[in-house]
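Annual report, structural modelling task.

Input specification for the protoporphyrin IX containing FE complex:
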Amino acid sequence: MRLMNLAAGDTRAAIDVARRRYGDAFVFGFGAIRFHWLLGAAANRFVLQEAAGSFRNRAAYRFLEPIGGPSALIVSDEPEHLRRRRRVQPAFHQRRLREVAGRAMRAFETWGDAALARGTLALQPSLRPVVLDQVIDVLLGPDMRSRYPGLRTDLAGMMAFANQPFLAQLLRVPLPATPWWRFTAARRRVDAALYAEIARRRALPEADVDGGVLSVLLDGAGDGPPLRDTELRDQAVSLVSAGFDTTTAALTWCAWLLCDDGLRQRVAAAVQDVDIEAAPSLPEVEALWREALRLYPPAPAILRVSAETVHWQGLALPAGSLVGLSTFHTHRDEGLWREPLRARLERWLGDDPVWAAPRDAFAYLPFGHGARYCIGAGLARTLAGAWLAVMLRRARWQALRPEAVRPIGTTLSPPQGLPLRFEQLPRT
Ligand code: HEM
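The model returned the following structure:
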């Protein structure tokens, strides 16, 4: 009973209780949310590598289909997944990300001016529109926002639906003023804008050189037959929606870790020592990013559905079982990490073997693993590097209610979006 109460309010706490009682494999929930939780690095290896062929994505992430459509990568199973992924992957090439960094730094400079002028603000809701703009520019092209002025609000509106608790998302009542009604209206407008844009670009005599990932997909880079218009729409919407909330949350958690004086001094000193362009790739910035994603992985669970009967640690998973892997619990596992709840840059800097992160690839997987590894990991890191480079050079900040900061929500976030007080650093 206690488990059921906990599961209704806080899945992560419920998993902790169940794990103490039943070990690394157990079942809880009911109906559409009856989860088979498999915990720890060995479970991650089993599902994502050893027995990956026995698990499917579409049935697990079906609840995302209304947003990203049936051909989004996350809901595609093989062989279609591989075909689509081969088309999309080249569009995220490293060279393109370098151009993104400069544009993002300028946007964050402007955001920083406003944050410093205000002094106090809730970080996550304040950053969300800026990150959304950056993600739209990269994925759909920088002219897209001016050509379709309502697009940004509608995409954010669609995400508001996806950010509701899991059960609330299953309530799809087509009545005016319900969340589902608002969602479908926003989706109709987004789809109209995207199909109009795809048609416009197809009619252009020459390739659109600055049209973001969408234009690269239209130009037909990558292997295999080109994507159809419906597939292009699905990639565009699903990439934006997979990217902007997760990246905003990750950035917010980086800022939270930097409220610790010792940690902040180390990263800020390194950043202030180099040119702004070099700051994002500093080892200290990378270590901060990794540590934020370890303690607060914005995607705290990875889901699959078994396609056949599978056995793991004595638990039989009949075909059709919904399986949950917890990045959150793996990253806080005392068997894998020394004092897991402490943020320590040394885990990643290679300067202190006592604190070194485990070598096991399945002990740390904020972006998943293998064939389904997050396609936007580099983009998220680029945007975070740009924000950290800009803000660590000009400001310091403190949480207004540090005692209240704990991870909540399906995209792991701090309560009230992390209210912070910003203070300008003296110019050097
Ligand atoms: C800090 C930010 C992000 C985090 C923590 C994150 C996390 C993840 C994780 C854990 C997966 C694997 C899911 C699974 O195996 O079931 C994934 C997949 C994916 N992510 Fe991300 N993501 C982030 C940013 C982004 C961005 C910026 C984009 C797009 C621009 C993106 C697009 C995708 C896509 C399309 C997939 C599915 C890949 C496939 O199935 O082939 N993500 N992400």
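DSSP finds 18 helices and ten strands in the chain.
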